[in-house]
Structures are given as C-alpha cells and as structure tokens.
Write a structure and sequence with these properties.
heterotrimer; A alpha/beta (329); B alpha/beta (328); C mainly alpha (287); B: alpha/beta; Rossmann fold; 2 domains; four-stranded antiparallel sheet; 12 helices; 32% helix; globular; C: mainly alpha; 73% helix
Chain lengths: 329, 328, 287
C-alpha cells in the first residue's frame, strides 16, 4: 500500500477538514529520520465520522495530532473550515484549535492526577475565560451529566479514584467543554475492558448527535470502528492503503492489508475456526521504509512492480479507493 | 486425564481500611493436563487475584486465604514460600499483559533468557546460549542470534511478548499462566501471539490458563472457559458448549458487548449498564442482579448456587437463559 | 500540616521536632539568657558538661558551648535555608524551563549542570569562596557579615545544579503525559501549562530533595570552616568546629557538642526528606 494520491478527495461544500500531502518526520539522531506520515491526504465532511485504522507505528496517532499542529507537520496543508492551520501565527492557532478537541487513548494519563474532576473539566473554560465562575460551574455539571456521571458524586474527587471507563467519560466531558465542532478520538477504547468499550462508543455516538460533531476516530481495531464510522481510511507505515465506506471496506476489502486486518479480529464463536494467521511478522521500520509500495514485504500478492513503483489511490468501486497495483477482486 | 491444577473452595479476602474486601469467593476449578482454560471477566471480577492465588503468589499480612490448590499432585497451599518458588519455571510459568515492565530494561535479551536454564536447569554458559537461541526460534523470532544482544526497548510490543513467552518456556513448564497476554497489542499481533501460544501448547504438551476480559479471545484458543463475576465463577463449561448453550445472562451480556466485525454500521452497541458491586459490601442476592435485564425478585435476595447442567457445564443463576419458567 | 505530622513514624516525628527546635533557637535564641558567645569565661576553660553556668561546658578558650550552639544556629540555618531556598528556586526554574523547551537551551543547561555536579561540592564551594572573598588589600580581613553572604552565594551555586537536575528529570517524565498534550490542544499557553500542570507535579520530588540539600549545606558550611574559609571569626556551628579542631585531646566535649548538633540536624533533614519522598511514591503508586 502505501500509496499517495488524492483521487479520494471530495471537493464539495460539506468538507470541513481537508488535509493535503501531510508529511510528519521525527529526527532520532545520527541523521536518521522516522517517516511517521508520508504525504497523506484526506478530507472529512460535516457531521461525518472518519475512522483512521492501522497497526501501531502506522502514523495514525501522529496524523491525528498533526491535524491539531501538535507538533506542526513538516509540510502539507491542514485546512479547517477554510483556514489553513499550518500557516497561522501562534496566537491565532491557539484559538483556532479550540474548535477541534482530542480524546486520548490512556484515560488515566490524560488527566492530571492532582486536579479534581471539577478543575479538570473546567480547565478549558478557565483557559479561555468563558463565563463567570457560576456559569462555568453549571456548565461542568451539565457536561458531567451528559457523559453519564453524577456531578455530586464525582466533582471533588481526583482521577486516580476512578476506573478507566469513568476517566474516559471525564476526558470526553472535558473535550466538549469548549463546544468544539470536531472531535479527534485517538484509540479512545483500546485501554478499556470489552464490556466498557461499548459504553464509551455509544457515549461518543450520543455526544456526536447532541453536539453536532464531526469526528475522526483513530483505532487499530476494525471491529471497534465498524459501528461508529461513516468512512474508513486504512493506513500502513505512514501511507494510505484504502479509503471507503464501512460496508464496502468490510464486505469487499480491495487492499490485501485491509483484508488481513479484518481477518485478525477475533470472532467470539468457537465453531468458526479460522485458518492461518492472516498477517505474519511486523511492519518494517519507518526509518527505512521499503521502496514502492510499503506493504509489499508482507503482501501475499506482491510483484516486482510493487517494489519499483508506488501505487496511487484510485477508485475501484464507487466511493472505494485503493492504493494497490493488484487489488483484491 | 488428570488435573494438573485443581483449585478447591478458594477464598481470598484482603484487609483494607474500609473493611474486609472479598476478592475471590469459593472458587473451585480443575485444569486438565494438556488443556487450555480461559478465565474471563471484567476488571475487578477477581480473575487476576484468583489466578495469582492459584499460583501461590499472593502473600502479605493483609491477605486472608482459604481453600486448597493442588498443583501436579502437590498441595501448593501447604507449601512454604520458597517451596512454592521452586515450582516456578519447571512447574509453572507466567506471562503478563505488559511485557515492557516485566522485562528488565537494562539487561540484554540473551542474559534474561539464559537465566532460567542456568539457574534452574544448571546449564553452563554455552548450553544456555544454545537453549536461548532454540527458544527464540521456538517463538518464531527471525534471526535469534541477533536478538540475544538487544535490549527490551529496541523491540516492538509483539516481539517483547514473544521474548516473554520464550523466557516463560525456558524450563519447559507444565502449566503456563497467560494474564491478558494480548491486551496491549494490535489485533494483527494479537492473532499471531494467540496462534503461537496454541501451537506451542500442543508442541510442548503444556496446559495453559488464559486470563482475559475478552470472550472473543478465548473462543478459538481454549477448551474450557470459566466466567468470573464479583469474585465468583458464574458459569463454566467446555468452550463449544458455553458458546452454543449459554445459561448465564452475564455471559450473554459480555458476548453481546464485544464490537463485532459483522455488526450493522451505525447501530448502537449492546452494553452492560452499571458496575460491579462493591467488593467490601457484596449484595446478599445475585451479584449481577442490579445489572441483569432478566432480573426477578428472588435474584435480589437469594444468592444462587452453582447448578450442574451436565457436560461439565455449571452456572450460577436462578433463571438461566433458555428457561421460561418464572420469567416475566 | 497536623495531618502530615500524624502520618509520620516516630523517627520522622522526632526529626520534625528537632528541626522545629533548631529553627526556634535560630529565631528566638537570642532571647535566652546565656553568656555572650563571643565572650570567654577566664574562670572556666575546657569546662565539662553541666558545669555551673555552662550547661554544655566550654571549650579550651572558655567560650560557652551552649551559647555558641544556640546563637550559631542562627548563622548556620540562615546560610542553609537561604542558599537552599534560593538555589532550589533558581535550579528548579532553570531545570523545568530547560526540560520544557528542550532543544539548545536544554543542551546548554544540562551540560552546565553536569559540569558543576562533576566537581565535588566542597571543592566547588572552596573555589567560589576563594574567588569571591579576595579583598583588594590582603592585610584587611573580610568582615564576618560579608563572609556569610559569600558563603551563601557559594553554597547556592552548589545547590542549583543538584535541584536543577532533579527538576529537569521530573519535568521530562511529566511533559510527555497526555494531559500536557491535552492542555496544549485546549489552547493553554506554555506559561500556564508549566504553572498549572508541570510545577505541581514536579514539586513533591523537589521538596524531598530540598531537605536533603539542607543537610548537605550544613555539612558544607562546617567543612568550609574547618578549611579556614567559613565564618571563621563569627558564630556558627562550622566556626565552632573550626575553632576547637585542635583541642580534641584535652577538651573533647568542645568537639562533641557541635558535631552532635550538626549530625542530628543532618539526620533529621534526611529523615524528613525520606518521609516526603515516601509520601510522593505512595501518591504515584495510586495513579
């Protein structure tokens, strides 16, 4: 996979976030560079949930943070509601960021252990000096109620007194305090028990409806994003493999990597014995990615063409785009 | 077949400032020689405490333990701490959820790997090195010789878990405890590790206990499943029997809450509302009553006993699934 | 505060009481009717413990030891508290900012800390005093007050890298926590992130080291005196030790008294530092 290209971009009025040719690199010393995100483009329409899916190290988290300019990307554009964030001066960026908020993977690490729940959820309002103290207090109570926590029980407690699922609820309440128009959720349920994951996923859906949010949902698990997304983008080693609607992606994945991801999800049914493990080994190092298609070293269908030439995203079915020389049919 | 590990009426309580915390309540479980048993439950269900106690690992002045644990026909619960320790490595071994914290960050993989063979099997340096390479190949690590000189931080999560498995297998244990071995890993790597564990278990004729919160993980990799809730086993059965003939509403709820690849897109997910009961103040009735969608009055007041449904299938419910009597 | 005291074990309680007593002596000691620490008693040279009029005896020169301990506490603790307070403040601020900014500033600062830390405390103090205390006219001795200031400056410089490195290290562990990234994504200014999120989390690590640093400074003050560059002609615990250094054979109590006081104070500081560190670990353990 590992393709670049912009065939999947929709240039309509509904697009709120447009990311073009985004490159994020990290220097790791001795002249080595990690190619975390390499020329990735995507767009998100108003009210849509875009899922970004891939293994650890595929650049999905870096991509999510780069949208918020945390840290700013090396090159490429991030246009949110018509404003190019990569070109904004620091103070304007600071205020532009409030329209997009992030929910993090580790619900415990994302909350300052010294602060009470009241202070945590109030913090964004405090930073932007929104409302009087009473108004902020009322807003905090409202937010906590909305995420299913009883304000009277939780306001004065600290994050370490709560379970992971409850911490994630607090995190979500905090991320909604500034009434953002976009929420970037970075693996919001990966650290939680299966039984709690469903609660948080439902909560995110509810919040999306209540606040009219546009969402980016980052995950390594295709089963988790199935229920929440309108569009899925599969990434591998800093590149886009496949973009499409959930139904298309799950019923006829065109990329060999997408198909392997789908077949990795455990099925809670002992009668459906599965054959060989779909994907062996691990992704190569992003310091020295393979030439051509970056997935070719693990791909069952790889040919010489894949090493020589990088595949570009192209439409294989209406609304389904794949970056592969030999897509599955 | 005989049982490699047999737990009888195990009770574990912790003394806390808030009172006695009952973590494990009257758990009995047999693990057959060569079988793979899944212990499934949410955080706080007591599954980890139960497995630690079964390994004889719980000690300390605040722990109150009752019941017996027999391992390989020896009574673990009657042993001194150093005698229990002698069982590790050759008798039983374990792997953990987070291989990064379980590995020593400042020692090379080779030296951590050869420790078991050298100390427990009395191998010399050369033999231990050969054994290390053999073990790394066993867990399908490419280029095992190069791996010996690496430090844990140089490895990916999946590779670290493979190394942990190699260390655990170094002295050919009879029983392997795997405590959430894939929770910190990607789904693709999870599939690889689970497959590896299943293969190794067959190759080495080893028994395995797989502790996890995910019913999906146990479905394809165990012969027998015990579901724990609030410190008790609420349902236990051979894996295929459990999934085809589920009795306990809690097991059903757990199964339904798993995000599924074939669920309808945009559909709401089934959830288990509410939380586990407070372990210092267990309800008198069924522990799941407050969250159960089939709850009846009797459930709130009377504690259900384990009922034998045949085929090794036990459950703890007054109104099991598939029965209509008494259900509203 | 009372709560904190209640959590202490016996040794920590004794340490807290001892430090409170020493601090009280430093502040109010001059109110106690004792002989002038600078006046010698020609009647009592090298008097033993519990001699009439001299509770802790006198040294060979006839100076009252109790009076010197009480009044010396003022100078010694003043030096300790000011240099540790000031050094801790500067060191922590520099360490936190360097760790937060990273890049070249961090490189310069941490290299500077490492250079200073590579020099033994005493050698560094000695060198600084030697540089600062050169008077233009060698025949005019430097006034006692000025010496105290010079020693405070020297010991402050000794403390800065110790606390600075602790603060830098602690900051590095916190800046990668997701709540700091979260704060940034909410639009929080760097200044506020440092004040609200970094400092409160780094402080506990610093508190415990501050107490250890007080011990270090008290010992260093004594050692500098012994080397002849301390508050030589003034009244301090170090000066007492320096003055009686040659009298050990015939007036041992004149050595025991200041050494025991210094030792107990240092032990108390270490104990309190350990207690605070233990509390900090407990807190971390719960997270």
């Amino acid at each position: 996979m590992a393709g670049s290209g912009t065939a999947h971009m929709r240039n309509n009025d509904e697009v709120v976030l447009e990311v073009r040719d985004l490159v994020v690199e990290f220097k790791i010393g001795r002249g080595l560079v990690v190619n975390a995100v390499s020329k990735v483009s995507f767009d998100v329409c108003r009210g849509e949930t875009l899922a970004i899916v891939g293994e650890s190290g595929c650049g999905k988290t870096t991509l999510g943070k780069a949208v918020l300019q945390l840290p700013p990307p090396k090159s490429g554009d991030v246009v949110f509601e018509g404003t190019n964030l990569t070109k904004l001066p620091k103070e304007q960026l600071r205020s532009a960021r409030t329209a997009m908020q992030m929910v993090f993977q580790d619900p415990i690490s994302s909350l300052d252990p010294r602060m009470t729940v009241r202070a945590l959820v109030e913090e964004p309002l405090w930073i932007w000096e929104r409302g009087t103290e009473e108004e902020r207090g009322a807003k905090v109570r409202e937010l906590l109620n909305n995420v299913g926590l009883d304000p009277d029980l939780v306001l004065n407690r600290r994050s370490y007194e709560f379970s992971g699922g409850q911490c994630q609820r607090i995190s979500i309440a905090r991320s909604l305090a500034l009434e953002p128009r976009m929420l970037i959720c970075d693996e919001p349920v990966s650290a939680l028990d299966v039984s709690i994951q469903a609660q948080i996923l439902n909560l995110l859906q509810d919040m999306k409806d209540r606040y009219g949010l546009t969402m980016i949902f980052i995950s390594h698990d295709l089963a988790v994003v199935k229920a929440v997304s309108n569009r899925i983008m599969v990434m591998y080693l800093g590149k886009v493999c496949e973009v499409g609607s959930p139904d298309a992606i799950y019923s006829k994945p065109a990329h060999h990597y997408t198909s392997a991801l789908i077949n990795s999800v455990p099925i809670p049914d002992p009668t459906r014995k599965r054959g060989a493990v779909p994907l062996q080994g691990e992704p190569p190092s992003p310091v020295a990615p393979p030439s051509g298609c970056r997935f070719r070293t693990r791909c069952p269908a790889a040919t010489e063409l894949c090493a020589a030439e990088e595949p570009q995203l192209r439409e294989v079915n209406p609304g389904q785009y794949v970056a592969c020389h030999h897509p599955r049919t | 077949m005989s049982a490699i590990l047999s737990i009888r009426k195990l009770v574990v309580n912790f003394e806390t400032p808030r009172g006695l915390l009952s973590a494990v309540r009257d758990v009995s479980l047999e693990i057959e020689q060569g079988s793979s048993v899944g212990i499934v439950g949410e955080s706080g269900s007591g599954k980890t405490v139960m497995s630690r106690a079964a390994m004889g690992l719980l000690s300390g002045s605040t722990v109150r333990r009752e019941g017996t644990v027999m391992f390989d026909d020896k009574e673990l619960t009657a042993m001194r701490a150093d005698e229990v320790r002698d069982q590790f490595g050759t008798g039983m071994a374990m792997i953990f959820q987070d291989p990064m914290t379980a590995l020593n960050p400042v020692r090379r993989i080779g030296s951590q790997l050869s420790e078991g063979p050298r100390v427990r099997l009395g191998m010399d340096k050369k033999a231990a090195r050969a054994r290390s390479i053999e073990l790394l190949s066993l867990v399908r690590i490419p280029d095992p010789e190069a791996m010996l000189n690496k430090f844990p931080f140089q490895l990916s999560g999946g590779m670290r878990q493979r190394v942990m498995i190699a260390i655990a297998l170094a002295c050919k244990p009879k029983l392997l405890f795997a405590d959430e071995p894939t929770t910190a890993l990607d789904v693709t790597v999870q599939a690889q590790i689970l497959q590896l564990l299943s293969d190794l278990r067959r190759e080495m004729n080893m028994s395995m206990v797989l502790v996890t919160h995910d019913l999906g993980v146990v479905a394809n990799h165990t012969d027998f499943v015990a579901v724990m809730y609030a410190g008790e086993i609420v349902e236990q059965a051979p894996t295929t029997e459990l999934f085809s003939n589920m009795k306990m509403p809690y097991t059903e709820a757990l199964l339904k809450s798993i995000p599924k690849i074939d669920s309808a897109s945009g559909a709401r997910m089934a959830v288990i509302e509410g939380r586990l009961p407070d372990p210092t103040d267990r309800p008198s009735g069924c522990g799941f009553a407050a969250r159960c969608s089939y709850v009846q009055d009797k459930c709130r007041t009377e504690h259900p006993p384990l009922v034998d449904a045949g085929n090794g299938h036990l459950y703890r419910c007054w109104y099991p699934l598939g029965h209509t009597i008494g259900r509203k | 505060m009372r709560n904190l005291f209640a959590q202490m074990n016996l040794l920590s309680k004794l340490s807290a009481v001892w430090m409170a007593l020493m601090t009280a002596l430093a502040v109010f000691g001059w109110l106690i009717p004792l002989p002038d620490p600078r006046e010698y008693d020609p009647e009592a040279s090298a008097a033993g413990l519990f001699s009439p009029g001299h509770l802790l005896g006198t040294d060979a020169g006839g100076y009252d030891l109790l009076s010197n301990v009480v009044n010396g506490a003022r100078t010694s603790l003043l030096i300790a508290f000011i240099s540790v307070g000031f050094g801790g403040l500067v060191g922590s601020a520099v360490g936190i900012i360097a760790a937060y900014r990273r890049g070249r500033l961090d490189y310069v600062v941490s290299t500077g800390f490492n250079i200073l830390l590579s020099i033994p405390n005493l050698v560094l103090g000695l060198a600084l005093v030697a540089v600062l205390a050169t008077s233009s006219d060698p025949s005019v001795p430097i006034a006692s007050n000025r010496r105290v200031i010079i020693i405070i400056i020297a010991l402050t410089v000794v403390i800065i890298p110790i606390l600075g490195r602790i603060a830098r290290g602690a900051t590095l562990t916190w800046i990668n926590r997701e709540f700091v990234v979260a704060a940034r994504s909410m639009g929080m200014r760097d200044k506020d992130i440092i004040v609200r999120h970094i400092v409160p989390n780094v402080l506990p690590a610093i508190y415990s080291v501050l107490f250890l640093a007080v011990g270090v400074v008290i010992v260093a003050e004594g050692a500098l005196s012994l080397l002849g560059v301390g508050v030589v002609d003034g009244v301090s615990w170090g000066a007492m030790i320096a003055r009686v250094a040659g009298e050990f054979t015939y007036a041992p109590q004149s050595m025991y008294v200041p050494v025991v006081v210094v030792a107990l104070t240092v032990i108390a500081c270490n104990q309190l530092g350990d207690f605070l560190r233990g509390r900090l670990d407990l807190r971390e353990g719960r997270i």
